[in-house]
Write a structure and sequence with these properties.
The protein is mainly β. Helices cover about 0% and strands about 50% of the residues. The strands form 4 sheets. Strands 10-11-12-13-18-17 form a 6-stranded mixed β-sheet, with no helix packed on it. Strands 5, 6, 7, 8 and 9 form a 5-stranded antiparallel β-sheet that branches. It is globular. The C terminus is likely disordered.
């Protein structure tokens, strides 16, 4: 069949780019208007809400949205530093920064509220590591072994993580089913290792 095609435009925006939709039909994405680039949430009834990242911040990534309506993404501050953020379904906004990092990007969130993303030196550095943020705010650093870059991009309800990693032989996909392991990386982060 032809289906139903609905145009989505944030009122007053010159461009609108949806990124994610959850089971309830809520849609999250980015838009551009006279004030710059912003994020939005569209409800199933067609109403829009702006996601209020800190003043003067620029949007810099796609958004992810879980079944509860929690949203994660990334913004860049006036100093050019990237920060992840979580906006819960009740509107509470939390900045996400891996301790000691110059850049943190939040890329996906599952129904349990676990968040995956990347962190590293300030952009445009290319060497990044992956993280898993638990709902209580603790971070697990995803062990990148011999890779120069680890980028987790999605996490499912079971806590399984997929992404890509770069090493001396090229770029590879990975599936990570994490387990708690002893020890930290020296900065107070608990490390996790993949089961393969």
């Amino acid at each position: 069949g032809n289906g139903t095609f609905t145009i989505i435009d944030v009122p007053g925006a010159s461009s609108t780019s949806p990124d994610a939709i959850n089971q309830a039909g809520k849609i999250a994405g980015a838009y551009t208007d006279s004030t710059g680039n912003r994020y939005f949430l569209r409800e199933p009834d067609g109403t829009f809400t702006t996601i209020d990242t800190p003043p003067a911040a620029n949007t810099s990534s796609s958004l992810a949205l879980n079944s509860a309506g929690d949203i994660v993404g990334t913004f860049t501050d006036l100093n050019g530093h990237g920060h992840g953020f979580l906006q819960t379904a009740n509107g509470t906004l939390t900045t996400i920064d891996v301790p000691g990092s110059g850049y943190t990007g939040a890329l996906d969130i599952n129904s349990a509220g676990q968040i995956v993303g990347t962190y590293g030196p300030p952009l445009p550095a290319k060497e990044v590591s992956g993280f898993l943020r638990e709902p209580d705010g603790t971070f697990r650093i995803l062990d990148k072994d011999s890779s120069t870059s680890t980028r987790p991009t999605a996490i499912n309800a079971a806590g399984q993580i997929v992404g890509s990693r770069v090493d001396a032989t090229g770029t590879h996909g990975f599936l990570l089913s994490y387990n708690k392991c002893a020890g930290t990386d020296g900065a107070g982060h608990e490390r996790s290792r993949s089961t393969r």
